[in-house]
Design a protein that fits this description.
seven-stranded mixed sheet, alpha/beta
Length: 228
């Protein structure tokens, strides 16, 4: 059996209430729940939350909320690994341990059922599967600002290297993480040789951490809906 775990704490500071805030016609978390249901690969879809309103909305849209997330896992310092391991511990204690678990973020409206299924297939010979997307600009030519407002290259040796001669760099798309339960219990990182990549186009990836991110995401969602 596979379980989808959707972490959704109630204390978001930069976008208050973002997990249940209306996003293009429905609560944000509903998009993730519906994507998980459409993937057709999960025996259970569980929302891990400390917030009663989030729990109510999750159940209204077809997810389970069989436990309340402890307060020490609902602050800014709790990690994805912490939250997943708590859920696995609860499942073990209740005799329902999945072979694999997908941690799907509550603010991932651009994740698709096809992406989820692709990740499930990749676990045939990997411990984890993670969606990634390429950086828009070569990270080898990145610069920083000094205290006096001057430019400094992180790697000055790359100044004369043509962009097309530099290898692509990729980053976590921030949508979901597939993993084998045994790997979730022991891993110290999700990025390494045991992790398979699920490449996504840049135009279908958007962080939603600030109000500006939210606005960009709404515009993107409307454009994608028109394109479909």
């Amino acid at each position: 059996m596979s379980v989808c775990l959707i972490p959704a704490r109630g204390g978001s500071k930069r976008i208050p209430g973002k997990n249940v805030r209306p996003f293009n016609g429905k609560p944000m978390i509903a998009w993730s729940i519906e994507t998980a249901k459409a993937a057709g690969v999960f025996g259970r879809i569980i929302v891990s939350t400390d917030d009663a309103k989030i729990a109510d909305v999750a159940r209204e849209h077809g997810a389970e909320t069989p436990f309340a997330r402890p307060a020490d896992l609902a602050d800014d310092h709790a990690t994805t690994l912490d939250v997943v391991r708590h859920a696995i511990g609860w499942l073990e204690a209740n005799g329902d341990v999945p072979e694999t678990l997908c941690c799907l973020y509550a603010t991932a409206p651009f994740a698709t059922a096809d992406d989820i299924r692709s990740g499930a297939d990749l676990l045939a010979d990997a411990d984890f599967a993670v969606p990634v997307t390429p950086f828009e600009f070569p990270i080898q030519r990145a610069v920083r600002l000094s205290k006096d407002g001057r430019l400094e290259m992180f790697d000055p040796g790359q100044f004369n290297t043509r962009s097309q001669d530099l290898p692509d760099a990729w980053h976590d798309a921030g949508q979901f993480y597939w993993g084998r339960t045994r790997a979730w219990k022991t891993a110290t990182t999700l990025f390494g040789p045991a992790t398979a990549a699920i490449p996504l186009p840049r135009w279908r990836v958007q962080d939603i951490d600030t109000e500006d991110d939210w606005t960009r995401a709404e515009i993107l969602a409307r454009l994608l809906a028109e394109r479909a």
